[in-house]
């Protein structure tokens, strides 16, 4: 029997409510290569696969101050959630994944939950890094990315409502 036990991965999760229907939020978040259009944390993103939605889809992101991050779909529940593998992280990261999950909280309101699961190497130093450095850093990063995404979605939702009101007023 081994004396070494596997630690649970670090799990960081944050939720935000977005004033838009779940279908609209899903259409935006599930367009994987579009991330460069709504967050400053990604300079450029493109598909590195022929598949663009669901299992088999993958994107490559240029992240300022970090480098290239390669992400591939691990799980996909159409209209609800996805999980991506995260590759290209520093050597002390053994494995990582992250994604989004959506749920309806009102007629035109959606709760978006973003999460990252990460397993580091070099225990116990890795465990200390998770608790005191990586966890808080990823939490703040997720909050910033969610705020940018909320603004992106709600701006488009407001423009759509404004366009339909203008169209009715003209007609």
Write structural notes for this entry:
It is a single chain. The chain is α+β, with helices and mostly antiparallel strands and 171 residues long. Helices cover 32% and strands 37% of the residues. It has a 7-stranded antiparallel sheet, covered by helices on one side. A hairpin with a 2-residue loop joins strand 6 (93-106) and strand 7. The radius of gyration is 18 Å and the shape is globular. 25% of the residues are buried.
Average pLDDT reading = 87
Helix-strand makeup class = alpha+beta
Total helix count? 2
Straight-line distance between termini: 77 Å
Report the biggest beta sheet as strand number plus sense, adding barrel if it closes.
7 strands, antiparallel
Shape: globular
Radius of gyration computed on alpha carbons: 18 Å
Write the H/E string, N to C: EHEEEEEEH
Beta-strand portion reads 35-45%
Short description:
The chain is α+β, with helices and mostly antiparallel strands.
What key attributes describe this structure?
single chain; 171 residues; alpha+beta; 2 helices; globular
Reconstruct the topology from this structure.
Elements: E1 10-18, H1 22-29, E2 44-47, E3 58-63, E4 67-77, E5 81-87, E6 93-106, E7 109-120, H2 125-170
Antiparallel strand pairs: 1-7, 2-3, 3-4, 4-5, 5-6, 6-7
């Amino acid at each position: 029997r081994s004396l070494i036990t596997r630690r649970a991965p670090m799990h960081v999760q944050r939720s935000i409510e977005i004033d838009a229907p779940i279908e609209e939020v899903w259409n935006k978040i599930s367009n994987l290569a579009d991330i460069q259009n709504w967050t400053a944390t990604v300079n450029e993103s493109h598909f590195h696969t022929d598949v663009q939605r669901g299992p088999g889809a993958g994107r490559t992101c240029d992240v300022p101050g970090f480098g290239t991050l390669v992400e591939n779909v691990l799980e996909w529940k159409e209209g609800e959630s996805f999980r991506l593998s995260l590759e290209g992280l520093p050597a002390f990261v053994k494995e990582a994944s992250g994604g989004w999950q959506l749920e309806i909280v009102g007629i035109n309101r959606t709760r978006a939950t973003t999460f990252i699961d990460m397993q580091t190497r070099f225990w116990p130093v890795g465990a200390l890094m998770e608790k005191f450095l990586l966890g808080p850093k990823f939490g703040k990063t997720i909050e910033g990315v969610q705020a940018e995404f909320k603004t992106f979605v709600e701006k488009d939702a407001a423009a759509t409502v404004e366009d339909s009101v203008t169209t009715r007023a003209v007609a």
